[in-house]
């Protein structure tokens, strides 16, 4: 398969182009339907408020530079964004991926689960392989508490399938295989999250995205008003 894409690259681009391998990865993602590729966009200047978060992102982006890798600096693992809907949690994922110059893969838990015995676990294994093949990348899991609802009663309701799938995900996030994967999760209700999801080693930090104060509201209005000129 590598030879096929290398030959195709020589025909289409007259050289071994990284673009052809990017296209191959995108085709693989589309075929499986487990993950969704998103073209990241936006910048920190388009996010009002959340100054502490923006300062942190500006700092950790340097852990993904070649210079940091050369000095043995460990890449940041990612973060969990908590808060009510509409406070830029999901937007932060696209902005972060764009800032890090990394592809953004959105994880769809509903596409993992399958009624056939063993199929859900196989789907998760396939998803992990795709994520690893696309790394370095940003892995985005939106409203993670909805994806994992029912985990506590999994043994009684689905024979433990959801618990096993979650275990596969957690094992991957805590392993060296995820060292080039920056994981972003969002949640509207932290009380519904399994505690092992936020255990040290899987994510670096938890950020709270709250309602903007008066100064932040003015900043947000100015950001949107600029687009109307």
Task: Give the SSE layout.
Blueprint lengths: L1 H12 L4 H15 L2 E4 L12 H10 L5 H5 L7 E6 L5 H12 L3 E4 L1 H4 L6 H16 L2 E5 L2 H4 L6 H4 L3 H14 L6 E7 L17 E5 L4 H13 L3
Parallel strand pairs: 2-5, 2-6, 3-4, 4-5
Antiparallel strand pairs: 1-3
Helix pairs in contact: 1-2, 2-7, 7-10
Written description of the protein model:
The protein has 229 residues and is α/β, with parallel strands linked by helices. It is 48% helix and 14% strand. It contains eleven helices and six strands. It has helices at residues 2-13, 18-32, 51-60, 66-70, 89-100, 109-112, 119-134, 144-147, 154-157, 161-174, 214-226, and strands at residues 35-38, 78-83, 104-107, 137-141, 181-187, 205-209. It has a six-stranded mixed beta sheet, with helices on both faces. Helix 1 (2-13) crosses helix 2. It is globular and about 50 Å long. The relative contact order is 0.17. The model has no long low-confidence stretch (mean pLDDT 83).
Report the end-to-end length measured between terminal Cα atoms.
50 Å
Mean pLDDT: 83
What share of the residues does DSSP label as strand, in percent? 5-15%
Within the largest sheet, what's the order of strands?
1-3-4-5-2-6
Shape: globular
Rg, Cα atoms, Å = 19 Å
Structural class: alpha/beta
| Biggest β-sheet strands, sense, barrel | 6 strands, mixed
Helix content: 40-55%
| Quaternary state of the chains | single chain
């Amino acid at each position: 398969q590598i030879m096929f894409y290398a030959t195709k690259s020589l025909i289409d681009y007259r050289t071994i182009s990284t673009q052809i391998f990017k296209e191959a990865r995108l085709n693989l993602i589309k075929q499986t339907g487990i993950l969704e590729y998103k073209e990241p966009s936006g910048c920190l200047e388009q996010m009002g408020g959340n100054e502490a978060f923006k300062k942190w992102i500006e700092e950790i982006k340097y852990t993904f530079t070649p210079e940091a890798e050369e000095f043995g600096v460990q890449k940041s693992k990612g973060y969990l964004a908590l808060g009510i809907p509409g406070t830029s949690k999901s937007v932060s994922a696209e902005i972060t991926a764009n800032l890090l110059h990394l592809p953004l893969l959105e994880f769809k838990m509903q596409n993992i689960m399958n009624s056939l015995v063993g199929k859900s676990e196989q789907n998760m294994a396939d998803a992990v392989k795709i994520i690893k093949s696309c790394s370095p990348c940003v892995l985005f899991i939106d409203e993670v508490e909805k994806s994992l609802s029912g985990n506590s009663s999994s043994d009684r309701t689905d024979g433990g399938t959801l618990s096993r799938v979650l275990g596969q995900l957690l094992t991957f996030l805590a392993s060296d295989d995820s060292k080039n994967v920056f994981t972003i999760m969002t949640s509207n209700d932290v009380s519904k999250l399994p505690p092992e999801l936020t255990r040290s080693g899987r994510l670096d930090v938890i950020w709270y995205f709250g309602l903007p104060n008066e100064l932040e509201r003015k900043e947000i209005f100015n950001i949107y008003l600029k687009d109307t000129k």
